[in-house]
Amino acid sequence: MSNNLPILTSVGVLPPHIGVTMTNPQLQLPDPLTDNAGMLIKALQERKTWGAEQRGLLKQLIDLLGRKRYITFVGHPARYRLTLVGQSCLMDVPANKRGYLSAFRGKRIRLVCVGSGRFERQLMAGVFQ
């Protein structure tokens, strides 16, 4: 009996039959981290430990992004390629994008990881200016 399922690799890439549509890495750009939110993100990325100060920075970041009308959603780290709290990137959203990011079709957005769990990440997305 032949098994037609793809083999999972050690890098954690899921086979297509699982239903995870990966974001094209060519659409993701480095985040310049030059605005107010970027400075908070940079401070989170430079952390060595996770304590009260970092939780305060994360709360400030979430509040700031909420005021900028960023959406919050839960996604798989393999799909959005963001795994650590404080990790971010810019992305040019394609015109045919579906799902959470469909509201941003044709725009450049910032994606930020603001929460992590065992299998999913809490992400925020909004138009980058």
What is the arithmetic mean of pLDDT? 84
Order of helices and strands: EHHEHEEE
Q: Enumerate how many helices there are, as a single number.
A: 3
Which word captures the global form?
globular
Helix content: 10-25%
What characteristics describe this protein?
129 residues; alpha+beta; 5-stranded antiparallel sheet; 5 strands; globular
Polypeptide structure, described:
It is built from three helices and five strands, in the order βααβαβββ. Mean pLDDT is 84; it is low at 5-20. α1 (36-45) runs antiparallel to α2. The protein has a five-stranded antiparallel β-sheet with strand order 1-3-4-5-2. The chain has one domain. 23% of the residues lie in helices and 22% in strands. The chain is α+β, with helices and mostly antiparallel strands and 129 residues long.
Topology summary:
Layout lengths: L27 E2 L6 H10 L6 H16 L3 E5 L1 H4 L7 E5 L15 E9 L4 E7 L2
Antiparallel strand pairs: 1-3, 2-5, 3-4, 4-5
Report a brief summary of the structure.
The protein is α+β, with helices and mostly antiparallel strands and 129 residues long. Helices cover 23% and strands 22% of the residues. It has helices at residues 36-45, 52-67, 77-80; strands at residues 28-29, 71-75, 88-92, 108-116, 121-127.
